[in-house]
Write a structure and sequence with these properties.
alpha/beta; 150 residues; two-stranded antiparallel ribbon; 8 strands; 37% strand; 21% helix; six-stranded mixed beta sheet
């Protein structure tokens, strides 16, 4: 499972011209799921996401986590995070899980994220052609892969 976290001032999702979700200051988390992903990957990524100290304290140092700043989270499924670009110029998405596997794992991820955050997490629409808008704050962008834990 791969996630891309962006610290944002605001973020929103629109589908077919209609607003679906929006948040204020917090995190936009893009979520890529593979067939090998398990509940253990979700647990680890949820703990990592809410524990990341990427928000400024009173001295302007990134020392606070999302809960401490009462930030919001928007989690959007994005199969293209699983792209392989090893060969040629056209990415391969063979590592991305199909809907039967990915949808339940995405729901579990967002539910556990909501529990860890202590309030609902906004989401996109799984499998839809979404327009995602954000104002990246910093910019702060962090890539985390549960199969390549550093």
């Amino acid at each position: 499972m791969r996630i891309l976290i962006q610290r944002v001032r605001r973020a929103s999702v629109t589908v077919e011209g209609k607003p679906v979700s929006q948040i204020g200051a917090g995190m936009l988390i893009l979520v890529g799921i593979s067939d090998e992903d398990t509940a253990e990957d979700i647990d680890w990524l949820v703990r990592k996401s809410v524990g990341l100290r990427i928000f400024d304290d009173a001295q302007g140092v990134m020392n606070l986590d999302i809960r401490q700043v009462h930030g919001e989270i928007l989690a959007v499924s994005q199969f293209t995070l699983m792209a392989s670009t090893k060969r040629g110029n056209r990415p391969s998405y063979i590592r991305a899980a199909g809907e039967a596997t990915a949808l339940p794992l995405y729901h579990t991820f967002t539910e556990q994220l909501s529990q860890a955050l202590g309030r609902p997490v906004a989401t996109g629409v799984f499998g839809a052609d979404m327009q995602v808008e954000l104002v990246n704050d910093g910019p702060v962008t962090i890539w985390i892969d549960s199969h390549n834990r550093e």
